[in-house]
Amino acid sequence: VQLVESGGGWVQAGGSLRLSCAASGSTFGIITMGWYRQAPGKQRELVAVITTAGGVTSYTDSVKGRFTISRDSAENTIWLQMNSLKPEDTAVYYCNAFSPSLRRDYWGQGTQVSVAS
After folding, report:
1. What b/e readout covers 16-51, taking b as 16+ CB neighbours within 10 angstroms?
2. pLDDT tens digits, residue range 65-84?
3. Which of 30, 81, 96, 112 is at a distance of 20 to 30 A from 72, taking alpha carbons?
4. CA–CA separation, 9 vs 30, rounded Å?
5. Spatial separation of the C-alpha atoms in residues 112 and 78, rounded to whole Å
6. How many Cα atoms sit within 13 Å of 33 on the Cβ side?
7. 59 neighbors 79 (Cβ within 8 angstroms)
8. What is the mean pLDDT of residues 9-28?
9. Is 15 helix (H, G, I), strand (E, B) or coil?
10. CB–CB of 27/76 below 8 Å?
């Protein structure tokens, strides 16, 4: 499975960005896709996740009400709409896909999001 992200960039605080992640290859068995982020000097953290079948979503508390994750199962693509961005959202954002049957996590190459105060 290959995950290709796009949509990162630089924005002023209060602005918006939209990330996308397209999965290709053998995606059978993947039950969740999501976004993680890693800021300099910090551990990678889960931002948002969505189930590929039912579209059930979950968010880390710091982004609730500001970020929205969505998916197109037919296209094996997910998006992360990020509104009201804050400087503390600055990080490299990674797309993730999880297959419990294969016991595999798949990762994209990461896309930089920078929010200026």
Report:
1. ebebebbbeeebeebebbbbbbeeeeeeeeebbbbb
2. 999 999 998 889 999 999 99
3. 112
4. 28
5. 17
6. 31
7. no
8. 95
9. coil
10. yes
Residue 69: per-residue pLDDT: 98
Radius of gyration of the chain from its Cα atoms, rounded to whole angstroms: 14
| Coil/strand/helix, residue 63 | helix
Q: Which residue has the tokens 């294969």?
A: 102
Give 23-42 pLDDT, tens digit per residue. Answer: 999 888 999 999 999 999 99
Q: How far apart are CA 44 and CA 1, in angstroms?
A: 21
The two beta strands, 9-12 and 111-116, are: parallel
Phi then psi for residue 73, to 5 deg, are -60, -35
Predicted pLDDT of residue 75: 82
